[in-house]
# Entry
Amino acid sequence: MSNLAPSAALAPALPVSASSGAAIELVGVNKWYGDFHVLRDIDLTVNRGERIVICGPSGSGKSTMIRCINRLEEHQQGSIVVDGIELTNDLKRIDEIRREVGMCFQHFNLFPHLTILENLTLAPIWVRKMPKKEADELAMHFLAKVKIPEQAHKYPGQLSGGQQQRVAIARALCMKPKIMLFDEPTSALDPEMVKEVLETMVSLAEEGMTMLCVTHEMGFARQVANRVIFMDAGQIIEMNEPEAFFSNPQHERTRLFLSQILGH
Amino acid sequence: MNLSSFIDVFHSWPSLLNGLVMTVMLTLISSFLGVVLGTLCAWGSLRGPKALRWFIRGYVEFFRNTPFLGQIFFIFFGLPALGLRLDPVTAALVALTINLTAYACEIIRAGIEATPAGQFEAASSLGLKPAQAFFLVILPPAFQRVWPAMTSQLVIILLASALCSQISVAELSYEANMIASRTFRNFEAYIVVTLIYLGLAVLFRDMLSWVGRRFVYGDFATEAQR
Ligand SMILES: Nc1ncnc2c1ncn2[C@@H]1O[C@H](COP(=O)(O)OP(=O)(O)O)[C@@H](O)[C@H]1O
Ligand SMILES: [Mg+2]
# Structure
């Protein structure tokens, strides 16, 4: 676990207001891979500006759940509403949702044949139809924000893992998403690079981004999460504010998991 | 045999030149079309509807597992029976293109399949449409991966174009036949033409490696080599 420097107090998540609606709403979501029941009756409402950390053992369905939110995976039962748009097979809606939802992956998934700058401008140019010059400026703005503007003309293979993941975050931000999904963004990193990526995520949280993070970085969870979710075997077992979640877990499975993760 | 026995062959340089131009034309046109169509077939065979995938699989299997001579005869002599009559040059171009497309499809497909699934997912999560993800994200690294194999295949097409002489397309081998039967200098005529093929193949390979540096690898190759 990395030790993050204490940062400015995070604003609490905005209360749900009836008019604005939730950022993400999953109701009775079920999914199968063949016979394998991977998500079971998932109910989850994420308010705007809320930061949620999801943890749980490997294979518990964490990735599958967040990948359903931007339709990298399809759910078979229940409903998923993102930013007021219900996910169906309607390709238009899927496109619309993907434009509002950014995602960062464990293995960065930068495009190896494009420079860092081109990685960032690809979607603004082709999806938002932004002129190249404007897209370049936007990209440089976000590269400065993740503190690597000097790498703009290099290729992903020339950067360290931590730098690549920050580029991946900047690339997602260039689409000005309302929601960011993170799937174990620091799991593939050498320990000394975890901190720089988490700091980037903290600063994003401080700006009020709605975030869903699958991570086992419990320091990060304590610092920025409004709620922590524990998943096991395709179910949400427990969900609570970080303080209560860590000090007083309600379920045996959560306790077991936390004792393994925290190494007591 | 001595050097003077080559004189008769060299006297026929205008027909050799014509044959050379025809061979180059057949090669360049079918190479271009074959790579473009092979790319589309690779896409169709991976992402197209089921019926299209099966059709492409069948097409690729058929043309990779039958002799080129049979293919060109079918197109030139067989198609007229079905009401489609092509002149020899067109038939040759069609045969070369169809043959190369089948091989190019397999080569490019291998390159695409070696691309991690995460690339497509990242592109999709950024809002790129499947076709944009394919042409902007998936294809360029796939081409970089398979460009050496593609280069070999294109050189093979250059050499295979010699078989077009069998339907009387006046390319290099055809001219060699003509010179041989006119001068009775069989050995000399074929030696000369073989050496011309050798020169062409080396030149073509160099050209493709330039195309690779200029269009396929871009700065990426030079950067990566550092
Ligand atoms: N495409 C797939 N086909 C079949 N099973 C899958 C597929 N993707 C994931 N799974 C299975 O679903 C379960 C949940 O996977 P995942 O959501 O990746 O778990 P986590 O992210 O919590 O480790 C695992 O048992 C995994 O093996
Ligand atoms: Mg996972």
